[in-house]
Amino acid sequence: MTSPSTKGSREPQPDEQLEQSLYAKRQKIFPREVHGLYARLRLAGVLGLLGIFYFTPWLRWNGHQAVLLDLPARKFHIFGLTLWPQDFIYLAFLLIIAGLALFFFTALAGRIWCGYACPQTVWTEAFLWLERKVEGDRMKQQKLDAMPMNAKKLRIRATKHTFWILFSVWTGFTFVGYFTPIIELGQRLVQFGLGPWETFWVVFYGFATYGNAGWMREQVCMYMCPYARFQSAMFDKDTLIISYLPERGEPRGSRKRSTNPRELGLGDCIDCTMCVQVCPTGIDIRDGLQYECIACSACIDACDDVMDKMGYQRGLIKYTTQHEMTGGKTHILRPRMVVYAVLLLVVMGIFAYSIGTRTSLGLDVIRDRNRLYRETADGLIENVYTLKILNMDKVAHRYTLSVAGIPGIELFTDMKDIEVTAGDVMELPVRLRADEAELKVRSSKVMFELVASDEPELSVQEEARFLGPR
User: For labelling alongside 77, which of 99, 273, 288, 306 has CA 20 to 30 A away?
Assistant: First the structure.
């Protein structure tokens, strides 16, 4: 017979234990506000990055929006530079530079990107600031969360979410303002005249901001972001990491400020858990390096403040390296860093040179593949081409076209004036004729040159092949 104390109970099966560990309920984190050197640096980064994002679309440059990615017109205005779809290679350069920079700074200083510049961190900091302004500090937030729903709690929560939603809508509006002139977008928003796609992206990006920064927060860093998973591949023993020094802090324990910890057999850690309370991901840095750590340095500021109050030396939690923790010397200049730095500088140099020597005139030569060549009545060999002329300048231009490469070669076209308006592409059929005696090989190289009549320095050359019977 089963006793009353054990009736209806049984040992959980292994599968059930696994399910419990995989689907554990999220413990809500209430990070305490922290002050200190790294907190000020993080605040400066947040204000700077948010300022760039929110105010850049309002800047004007030569009569138009300074930064405007005009997809319908296929023009990308970046201050004084106008890029076209043909300039897509520059985007590839920027992505390569961003990737190499991430590798370089991660190998040097760990997850400094996550702690100071990642959009998830930046917007979460902004949402936390709004939350503290409405709900109060950590203790008040915890008290409010434990309180049963009543009129007061409903009013406070409604106020907080109203501010969050307004901030998110402003974020979505600003995002769309990079693709649609923001002044025009604002006028249509006030008049309730937004188009369906503009409305969709304002709502979508605003909702993403509201969900990621307001609700999911550390869940994005811990479970959704892949960077935390592969960051260890970029770490080595000389990478800066945030670490607790157990040889100095252990054994931990509380004590009075006037007590000598050595007489009690204690280390410098007073087990106040301040480092845990300020952590935005809720980890205990004293347990060692963990993938959830975003290197925000909040625990360093909190611990240094406690050390100051206790009269102890700062640095119980600090930036360090594995080499330093094991008594070695940190090497900043090492092969990995040199390779990353050289690659980064080379790609940045190529990118800068390419932008500096970029011309606003494009020329593509397409040879007629339906016929290799034909012989004219006067015995000349003729090839037919289609030229695509792209004017990537802001004004219209007239052009002169010439060809070289074969002695006596002649160019014929039905169009007397080659004029292309700003941002337009012209298809121009042309014919080349050459004396067969001048063709030394079956396929000869010819060079088309297109020069702007009103701006001779604006020119472009394009190579093509001229086919003959030999």
Answer: 99
Compute φ and ψ for 217, nearest 5 degrees. Answer: 45, -110
Q: pLDDT digit string (tens) for 323-354?
A: 898 888 888 889 999 999 999 999 999 999 99
Fold that domain 361-467 belongs to in CATH? Immunoglobulin-like (2.60.40)
Domain residue limits, the chain = 27-358, 361-467
- End-to-end distance of the chain based on CA atoms, in angstroms? 106
Residue 107, token pair as written in the block: 């190998």
Quickly count: other Cβ atoms within 10 Å of residue 427's Cβ: 10
Q: What is the pTM of this model?
A: 0.83
